Amino acid sequence: MYLRAVHAEHHLPTLRAFIRDNPLGIFTTAIDSPSFPFLQSSHIPWLLDVQDDDSETELGVLRGHMARANPQAKAIIEHLKSTTSTTDDGHPQPLTRDVMILFNGPAHHYVTPKFYTSTKPTTGKVVPTWNYAAVQVYGRATVYFDSKAHATDAFLSKQVADLSRHAETAIMKYERAWEVGDAPEKYIEALTKAIVGVEVEIKDISGKWKMSQEMAAGDREGVVEGFEKMGSEEGFKIAETVRERGMLSEKKKGEAKVGA
Questions:
Q1: Which residues contact 127 (CB under 8 A, 6 or more apart)?
Q2: One of this protein's Pfam families, by short name (predicted)?
Q3: pLDDT tens across 50-86, in order?
Q4: Half-sphere exposure of residue 159, counting CA atoms within 13 Å on the CB side?
Q5: Helices marked H in 12-90
Q6: Paired sense of beta strands 195-210 and 109-111, if any
Q7: Cα angle, residue 107 at apex, residues 14 and 219 outer, rounded to 5°
């Protein structure tokens, strides 16, 4: 992901909050296989585990699961079975290549040059762009695919229960959340055999908020006004983010001048 300094976000608590608010990540692997494409991607909802949510150094671990029938999962299993796939304690070995997970914010939109009320009338030196926010993660993945192994059963039981609880309470805001135990036990057991678990130890994480903060104040105000006039939920959300990121950018500029 191309990161201009003005768009980059490295504050870990902010990145964690973004992932938890937008847990559907695009999971990408690069695996040599005689049967499947080298590059594959899948949309997977993730949970982020950290010991200290306020820490600005702890990267954490992502937990997810995917269908065993998914060609990407098949390529991973094929690769792991062709190598030493378990450690001495029975846990699966991690993939040798890093994986990538990309999380996208829900609000993104084309930005017309007509929004730039400061620069466009004076010089005309403006072009269209696209505003969006995203967080990118690189890490080492361990895949729990042996349905007969205790480690797989333990991982998937916790993963499915935790993910359901997070989605029901944090995303849906239900006071009475649906729980895995509400479904028949044999039904859950059958479905669990049809999935594999994925655990990613994060090695690098970065965020990008491309929300017009590089523009002059007058143009940013024009962007905010333009999106608000659209009258849509997405427009209001982008306008709010443009305003927030603009204020943050100006604050950083002020701090840099003071420290110079």
A1: 113
A2: FMN_bind_2
A3: 999 999 999 999 999 999 999 999 999 999 998 866 6
A4: 24
A5: 12-21, 71-81
A6: unpaired
A7: 90
